Request: fold
Amino acid sequence: MTPQVLRAIVVEDDHSWQQILSEILSDCGLEVDVAGSLDEASTSLKAQPHRLAVVDLSLSPNDHNNYDGLRVLDAVRRLDPNCRTILLTGFATVELAVTALTDYGAFTFLRKESFHRSQFRDIVYRILVSPPQLTTPTPASGTTTSSYAVKGQAAPQKLPSEKALVVEDDAGWRSILEELLTDAGFQVRTCSGFGDAFGYLRRERFTLAVIDLSLQGANNTWDKGAIDPNLDGYKLLAATRSDGIPTIVVSGITEPDEIQRIYSEHSISAYIEKQAFDRAAFRRVVEETRLTHHSMSELSTLTDREREVLDLLAQGLTNKEIAEKLYITTNTVKRHLKAVFEKLDVHTRSAATAKVAGG
Reply:
């Protein structure tokens, strides 16, 4: 899967500030677009999604009555709802700051006269590991939210057969992951710590686990690539691996060597960095993990001899060649293949081979 490019937009009419902000954002791993006016910002916001926008309040030189920055914040909410915004200004009242935060949804408000690179960088990382905002379409007027909502009848409730465990100490991320997994057809259990999660693993059978590595509070996730070898999430990875539960890690840790180690030592299905989280990509990873696990479960029903026959079939051998390889008759090969086809619910040699590739 091609890594998602995270973009930021700087909306600032001062060239010096454009350079300063772009440099810091680039150092944080973001591709940066620059706009000097409301119109330029709107065009950029329409062109592609952004994770972060840094917006100057006044976009007219020396005009202290120009508040185009607030109009940009409003445009971000309409055109790029998953983009978080930082308002930056050289002059503003407390009342205006409150307006930016409450009425226009800004993440924070910074003054240019007290600007510090380290503080700004910390805020950027906090935004990158914060849960993306949910944008649920509003049902059109006159429509129902369920195809079963007819004549006041309640929709029939069918409990999903597959269970997913979400272990995440941030309430925002728990909500995001629970909603996505529920939409994918899972019955979801959520918890925020090791104790609850381990208890669920002892009591129930899960077909998927989604785990954050840091379960020690949000403050510990602000440092880019911070690694604590004693994190409770690592202990849970060992538990899910032992139980044979496919596991997806969603974490703020971005250190490549550490991610590679987690893959190799814990045999996880996927690793998703919170900074680059995308709901559509998460859905794809979940579905791929589900299909792979299903194929592996089917293959586990085969006997050792049936698996041997299937593996040779997947290598392109004919029945006669398989018989010679295993020192059995061709009729025995046919009997094994019949059993394999029935257990895998397939009808052709190519379909059976595909199961091996998927498993």
